[in-house]
Amino acid sequence: MWTLAHRGYSGCGRLDIWVYPSKAAALREGAKLAMACGLDEDAQATMLFAKGSYEKVLERYEHTHPDTHLLRVQPAFLQHPE
User: Fold this and answer.
1) Starting at the edge strand that comes first in sequence, how are the strands of the sheet with 16-20 ordered?
2) CB under 8 Å to 14, separation ≥6 — which residues?
3) Which residues, at least 6 apart from 48, have a Cβ–Cβ distance to it below 8 Å?
């Protein structure tokens, strides 16, 4: 399981988290979200997205947005009851 975490302009700094069954799926959806959050007007991000370099799109998002923004994919750490 993989998570996609996003904190941006909407939601007053709220952190949204989605869960995906694979890293590839989480990266793809994260890149789509980054493009919808304004990177569709960034030539470098548009080129990276078209190439399928989704992880680079997420890096571009964080590089071009304030430190208060986050768009990251990482493994889900699930705790099982004993």
Assistant:
1) 16-20, 2-7, 70-75
2) 7
3) 54, 56, 57, 60
**3-state SS, residue 39:** helix
Closest C-alpha to 71, from 27, 23, 40, 12:
27
Distance between CA 74 and CA 10 in Å, rounded? 22
More confident residue, 31 or 11: 31
- Phi then psi dihedrals of residue 41, to 5 deg: -100, 0
Closest CA to 70 of 78, 81, 62: 62
pLDDT one-digit tens code per residue, 14-66: 889 999 999 999 999 999 999 998 999 999 999 999 999 999 999 999 999 87
Which amino acid type is present at position 13?
Answer: G
Q: Tell me how long the chain is.
A: 82
